[in-house]
C-alpha cells in the first residue's frame, strides 16, 4: 500500500510550493521518488529472501451490491518487481535531469505535478491486484499523457496531437471496461490476479465457452495494442513527442508505451492455451516490427526515429510474450526502456554533433538508380515508410470520420424544439421508472435500448458540434441522463446506484456550465471552430473546467467513476448490443469534453497582444 500512497502524497505536496520556488518543487517530487525507490529496494530484497512468492492484499471494498463487488486490491510478483524497479529508477533520473532542463520554464511546477501524477498512475497499474484497480491507474495514465503532450499549450500542434492521442487512449480505456464486463459475465464474479494466476478454474471456465475463449483475449489484445502503439495504432507515438524531451523520455520512450505489454503479461493465463490468439499476437508483433523499423530508418526527426524504433522492439516483446518467454520479455523491457530514455535525453546533443559533422564532412550521395521491378519496389517501400504507411490518415478516416458524419446528420437534436421534446421524454421516463414495479419485461428492455441509443445520438452531436461550447456541454449531460434511464429500465430500479452515478454528473455538469457561461460573458462569445487560449487570462477557470470535464467523464475523482462500473455490471450477459452502445457513449463523452476544454482554454490566445507561438515544439 505504501507504493501507491507515497506517490499520492507526493502529488498533493507538489501543489503547495509557489511557481517561483523551483528548488522546493524539485525536492518535494524527487524526495518522493527516492523514498519510493529505497522502500521498493528493501521490500524486494525481503520478498526475495522469503522465497519470492506472489503477495496479494485486499485493502478496500468501495462498492458491493449483489454479485457486483469493486475493491482496491494490490498484487506483487516478478512482473511487478521488474516494472516497479525500472519505473522508480527512471522516474528519479528524469526528475534529476529535469531540474536543470526545465529551469525557468513557465510550466516548471506544472511539469513536476504531471510527473508525479503519471508516477501515481503507473504504480496503480503495476501494483494492481484486480482489473478494477488496474483500470483506475489506466485512466490516470491517459489523462497525464494528455496533459504532458499538450504541455506547450500555447502552440497549435501540441494541443491538436494531445487530443489525437487521448482519443485513442480513451478507446483503450473503454475496451478495458468491455473486457472487465466480459470477464464478469464469463466467471460470474470480479476476478483477482492471484486467483487467475494460481487457480486452474478460471482458464477452464473460459475454455468451456468458445466465444469467450477467443473474444476476451482478443479485446485485451486490442487494448494492449493501442496502449503500446502496435499495428495499426503505431502513428500516435511520434505525435506524443510534442511535450518536453524529458516527458518523452519517461512516457513514450520507456514506461507508458510498455504498459500494454504489461497487460498482456498479466492476462497471460487467459490466453496461454489459445493457439489462435498466440499466433495473432506473433503476427501483429512481427508486422509492427517490420513496418516500424522501416519507418524509423527514413524519418527526418530524431524523436520520430526513436519512437518507431521503440515500437519495433515492443513488437518483438509481444512475440516473446506469446511464446511464453517471460524472463526474456522482462530483460528486454528493462533494456529497451533504459536505452530509449538515454537516447531521448541526449538527442539534442546528438543533433548538434551530427550537424557539425555534416557541415565539415559532407559527401554528396552516390547515384543509385533504381531500375527493374525490385528497384521500383524499394522506391515504393521507401515512400510508404516516409509517409508512415498513412496510418494516421487511416485511423482518422475509418475510426473517427464516420461518427463525425453521423453526429452532423443528427444535428437536429440540438434545435430548441428537439431539446423540449427530449426534456419531456426524460421527464416521462423518470416518472415511469419511479412508478414501475414488477419483473423486467421485454418492453422495458426495449425501452432501455432506445434510451441508450438516444444517449449515443446526443453525445455524437456533442462530438461534432462546432457552433456553441455550452450546447455541446449540455448535450453531454443529456447523454448521461439517457444512459442512467437506460440502465434503470434494464434492471430493477436501484435508487442508491442511480444516485452514485448521477451525483458526480450533476455537480460537475452544473459547475462546468457555469464556468463556460462566465467565460462567455467576459469574452463575448466563442464557438468550437478555433482554439481560443483563454487559460492565459483565466487559469483558475481553466483548471476548474478541466476537473469538471474529468468528473463528468468518469475519472476517479467523483462517484461517476464507480457509477461507470455499476452501469456495466447491470447489463446482462445476453445484451451485447446494449453493451456496445453504452460503451460508445462512454468513449465519446470524454473525447467531446476534452475537445471543449482544448478549444476554449488551450492554444494561442485569441487576443493579439499575447505572444505568438510556433505551431509546434
Number-wise, the strands total 2
Note the gap between the termini. Answer: 39 Å
Mean pLDDT, rounded to whole units? Answer: 84
**Contiguous uncertain segments of 5+ residues:** none
Q: Can you list the strand order of the major beta sheet?
A: 1-2
Number of helical regions: 25
Number of domains: 2
Percent of residues in beta strands:
under 5%
> What Rg is obtained from the alpha carbons, in whole angstroms?
25 Å
Describe this structure in words.
- With 617 residues, this protein is mainly alpha-helical.
- It folds into 2 domains: 2-353, no CATH class; 410-601, no CATH class.
- Helices cover 73% and strands 3% of the residues.
- It is built from 25 helices and 2 strands.
- The protein has helices spanning 2-14, 22-49, 78-101, 108-126, 131-149, 156-187, 193-198, 201-208, 210-227, 236-239, 245-255, 259-266, 268-271, 275-298, 302-322, 326-360, 372-386, 391-409, 416-435, 442-464, 469-490, 495-522, 539-552, 560-569, 576-601, and strands at 55-65, 68-76.
- Strands 1-2 form a two-stranded antiparallel sheet.
- Helix 2 runs parallel beside helix 4.
- It is globular.
Amino acid at each position: 500500500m505504501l507504493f501507491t500512497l507515497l506517490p499520492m502524497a507526493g502529488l498533493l505536496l507538489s501543489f503547495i510550493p509557489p511557481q517561483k520556488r523551483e528548488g522546493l518543487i524539485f525536492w518535494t517530487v524527487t524526495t518522493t521518488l527516492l523514498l519510493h525507490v529505497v522502500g521498493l529496494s528493501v521490500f524486494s530484497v525481503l520478498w526475495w529472501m522469503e522465497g519470492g512468492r506472489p503477495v496479494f492484499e485486499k485493502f478496500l471494498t468501495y462498492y458491493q451490491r449483489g454479485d457486483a463487488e469493486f475493491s482496491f486490491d494490490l498484487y506483487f510478483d516478478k512482473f511487478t518487481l521488474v516494472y516497479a524497479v525500472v519505473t522508480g529508477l527512471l522516474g528519479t533520473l528524469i526528475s534529476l535531469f529535469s531540474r536543470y532542463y526545465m529551469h525557468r520554464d513557465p510550466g516548471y511546477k506544472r511539469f513536476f505535478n504531471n510527473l508525479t501524477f503519471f508516477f501515481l498512475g503507473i504504480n496503480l497499474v503495476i501494483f494492481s491486484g484486480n482489473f478494477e484497480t488496474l483500470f483506475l491507474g489506466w485512466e490516470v495514465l491517459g489523462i497525464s499523457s494528455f496533459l504532458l503532450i499538450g504541455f506547450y499549450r500555447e502552440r497549435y500542434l501540441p494541443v491538436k496531437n494531445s487530443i489525437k492521442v487521448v482519443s485513442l487512449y480513451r478507446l483503450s480505456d473503454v475496451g478495458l471496461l468491455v473486457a472487465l464486463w466480459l470477464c464478469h459475465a464469463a466467471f460470474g464474479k470480479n476476478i483477482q490476479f492471484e486467483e487467475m494466476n494460481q487457480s486452474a478454474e478460471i482458464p477452464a471456465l473460459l475454455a468451456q465457452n468458445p466465444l469467450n475463449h477467443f473474444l476476451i483475449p482478443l479485446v485485451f489484445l486490442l487494448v494492449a495494442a493501442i496502449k503500446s502503439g502496435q499495428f495499426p495504432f503505431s502513428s500516435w507515438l511520434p505525435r506524443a513527442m510534442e511535450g518536453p524531451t524529458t516527458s518523452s523520455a519517461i512516457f513514450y520512450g520507456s514506461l507508458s508505451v510498455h504498459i500494454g505489454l504489461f497487460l498482456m503479461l498479466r492476462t497471460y493465463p487467459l490466453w496461454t492455451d489459445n493457439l489462435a490468439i498466440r499466433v495473432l499476437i506473433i503476427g501483429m508483433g512481427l508486422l509492427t516490427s517490420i513496418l516500424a523499423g522501416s519507418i524509423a530508418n527514413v524519418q527526418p526527426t530524431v524523436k520520430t526515429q526513436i519512437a518507431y524504433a521503440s515500437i519495433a522492439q515492443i513488437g518483438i516483446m509481444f512475440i516473446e510474450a506469446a511464446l511464453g518467454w517471460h524472463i526474456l520479455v522482462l530483460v528486454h523491457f528493462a533494456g529497451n526502456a533504459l536505452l530509449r530514455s538515454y537516447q531521448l535525453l541526449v538527442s539534442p546533443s546528438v543533433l548538434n554533433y551530427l550537424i557539425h559533422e555534416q557541415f565539415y564532412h559532407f559527401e554528396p550521395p552516390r547515384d543509385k538508380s533504381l531500375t527493374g521491378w525490385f528497384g521500383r519496389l524499394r522506391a515504393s517501400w521507401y515512400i510508404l515508410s516516409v509517409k508512415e504507411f498513412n496510418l494516421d490518415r487511416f485511423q482518422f478516416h475509418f475510426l473517427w470520420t464516420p461518427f463525425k458524419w453521423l453526429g452532423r446528420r443528427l444535428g437536429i437534436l440540438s434545435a430548441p424544439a428537439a431539446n423540449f421534446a427530449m426534456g419531456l421524454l426524460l421527464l416521462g421516463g423518470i416518472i415511469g421508472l419511479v412508478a414501475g414495479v414488477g419483473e423486467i419485461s421485454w418492453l422495458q428492455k426495449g425501452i432501455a435500448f432506445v434510451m441508450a441509443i438516444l444517449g449515443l445520438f446526443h453525445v455524437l452531436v456533442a462530438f461534432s458540434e462546432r457552433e456553441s461550447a455550452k450546447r455541446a456541454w449540455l448535450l453531454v449531460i443529456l447523454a448521461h441522463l439517457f444512459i442512467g434511464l437506460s440502465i434503470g429500465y434494464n434492471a430493477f430500479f436501484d435508487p442508491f446506484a442511480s444516485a452514485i452515478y448521477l451525483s458526480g454528473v450533476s455537480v460537475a455538469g452544473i459547475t462546468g456550465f457555469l464556468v463556460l457561461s462566465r467565460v462567455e460573458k467576459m469574452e463575448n462569445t466563442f464557438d468550437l471552430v478555433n482554439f481560443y487560449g483563454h487559460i492565459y487570462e483565466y487559469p483558475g477557470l481553466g483548471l476548474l473546467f478541466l476537473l469538471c470535464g474529468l468528473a463528468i467523464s468518469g475519472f476517479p475523482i467523483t462517484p461517476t467513476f464507480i457509477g461507470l462500473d455499476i452501469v456495466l455490471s447491470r447489463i446482462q450477459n445476453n445484451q451485447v448490443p446494449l453493451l456496445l452502445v453504452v460503451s460508445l457513449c462512454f468513449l465519446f463523452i470524454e473525447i467531446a469534453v476534452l475537445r471543449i476544454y482544448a478549444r476554449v482554454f488551450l492554444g494561442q490566445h485569441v487576443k493579439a497582444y499575447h505572444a505568438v507561438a510556433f505551431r509546434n515544439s
